[in-house]
User: Fold this.
Amino acid sequence: MAQRDVRLAIVGAMKERGPEELQDLHAPGMQLVREWATRSRNYVEVLAATADGGRRCLHSLQVSDRSPLGAVALATGGLLVDHGWVRVLGSGHARLPRALDLWNGLTDGGGVESAQRLPGALLIGDDALGGFYAIDGGALGAVIGNVCYFSPDQLVWERVASGYADWLSGLLSGDLDEFYSGQRWSDWRSEVAMMPADCAVAIYPPLWRKGPPVGLRSRAPVPLEELWRLHVVDLPRQLGGDLS
Assistant:
């Protein structure tokens, strides 16, 4: 599926629109996001966006900032949730250098489409374990528009929310200790705080193998790109569904 087709499937755009058509000074999208962040049960940082980066990201997505997805793309550099355990992608920031459009390959930063990272889906966030969140555009086996999670202990995409707004509001208001049950260790906050958001924790034995509690396993930060290739690209193909 071509990159433009993926965007159409996810956001329902009928024709490519310019930044001025996608921006609405009175849009409710960012107001909703800030309300969710203010009421969040999980500590959240809303990173600032640059004007150019926000407009580039919004135009690449072809979604209005009236939606939470468009608002996060335009008005934030991303969100760091629960002390940085979950990273919600925006238009990029020094502390979260994966811009939503660039990480997905919707553009190379100069307005030219590049090779899409996950054809048929849009990556919207990731976590400190090297797990990934994406909107299904037809490739993940869920309903188009649903949000799925790729867990490093299952190595499959699983539906977790009916859409981006449902996912983001749930991420901020939900019990992440329960969601990540068995995958956190006693001093995870201090380890994650010292780790750049372009890295994640490599665990050995890996979470998809039986072994001791995660707190007793070997852990080291590695570039997230390495865990993307390992978890999403290489291991599922090599193991063929056999996690024994």
Notes: The beta strands are 44-48, 76-81, 86-89, 121-127, 132-136, 147-150, 157-161, 199-204, 218-223. The chain has ten helices and nine strands.
